[in-house]
Amino acid sequence: MKKILFLQIKGNSLGGVWFVNKTLGEEFIKRGYHVEVLAIRNNHPGMEIKNTPLKVTTINTQDVWETVHRRDVVNALKRGNFIKMLKTYFRDNKKLNKDYEKMQEFIKNYRPDYIIASHYQTLFGVPNKYLSKVIFVQHSSFDYLSMDKFNVRTLKKLNKKIFKLCWLCKSTMIKAKEFGFTNNTYIYNPNKFITNKKADVINNKKIVVITRIHPEKRIDLMIDMVNDVLKEFPDWTFEIYGSGSFNEESKKILNISKQIFYKGVTESPLKVLLGSSLTLNTSIYEGFSLSIIEGFSVGIPVIAFNFGESAHEQIIDDYNGYVIEKDNIELFKTKLKEILNNTQKLEELSRNSKEFSRQFEISKVADKWEKLFKK
To answer: Would residue 78 count as lying in a domain?
Structure first.
């Protein structure tokens, strides 16, 4: 039986990387592979991974993951915090190196046929003789990656030692090639939902977003725009699902609005999407938006700001949604009004979204991974 090992920095994270690895890993188990996940440390103490046949091993369960870079030391010195510099460099780095040694021992004992690494930090824990079995997946856009010089240097150094660099879309792969990376390929993220159902987008009359409420997602901007638009559409509502915090202006809107509601974390995202009509995306950047393809799976079109290289591969203008150039707030609101006013167009976008989503079905994405394994 062939063995697959996923590498992550966090063992109990419930973010996008985990759900991609979980979806792929469970499909590979169905196809007869032995699959495990190896993480360096945990994220939030007490959080547990549930409802999966995947075995997740965390090397260090005592310390929470903290990224240690040379730039952290430099920044501490710039602020005159010599003590913090010593702490960062000597204590944290020493602990992390011990974690990497334990990772190497685990990999030697597990003897995987294929290693799928999701964070560049995990590559330091791969024994040299196993680097040729590594497919490294960069889960962000290339523009975002290029801002982290240490990340870029690490990947360039290991580029020829690992089997493949896998990017999340063709546009990102092209940028990587232009930047000098070799051994490139790309595979879209899989959709974790499998359903034949389609949302009743005309009668639901609901905008929904399921996301992390984090500054890079700009949910406060989204709330402000939707609040302006829905004043003209009293029969429509907007629901926000996820964890995080809002700014003071958003809190005021949520407190007084009878159309905009914060619903917290949902355990039933598919049910939420089936009861909706439209989703939005205001992120500064995305590697490859899972929330968009999840919406497509039930026929929920999207309006999004241009969040980077994958935007126009995920969203085809006037087919399954619209991509608005960054920070063109007025155009975003105008396009939203047009869709809410035109039920025929909304239904057309919905049908197209459902059809477009089929390429992200786990069976099709896993087929591409197996072709890569066979090479």
So the answer is: no
Q: What is the CATH number of the domain that holds 110?
A: 3.40.50.2000
- Report DSSP state, residue 190: P
Residue 131 is which amino acid?
A: L
Our count of domains for the chain comes to 2
E strands present in 202-301? 206-210, 237-241, 260-264, 278-281
Nearest to 138 by CA among 176, 171, 157, 165: 165
Is-contact 337 355, C-beta < 8 A?
A: no
302 beta partners: 279, 321
Q: In whole angstroms, what separates CA 95 from the centre of its chain?
A: 28
What percent of the chain shows pLDDT beyond 70? 92
Report yes or no: 220 and 246 within 8 Å, Cβ to Cβ: yes
Q: How far apart are CA 224 and CA 167, in angstroms?
A: 34
Tell me the CB-side half-sphere exposure of residue 169, using CA atoms within 13 A: 21
Specify whether 162 is located in the same domain as 207: no
- pLDDT tens, residue by residue, 44-98: 665 667 789 999 999 998 888 865 555 555 665 666 666 665 666 666 778 889 9
Q: Which residues pair with 241 in a beta bridge?
A: 210, 264
CB within 8 Å of 181: residues ≥ 6 apart: 155, 156, 159, 165
* 135 and 258 housed in the same domain: no
The structure's pTM equals 0.88
Domain containing 256 equals: 201-360
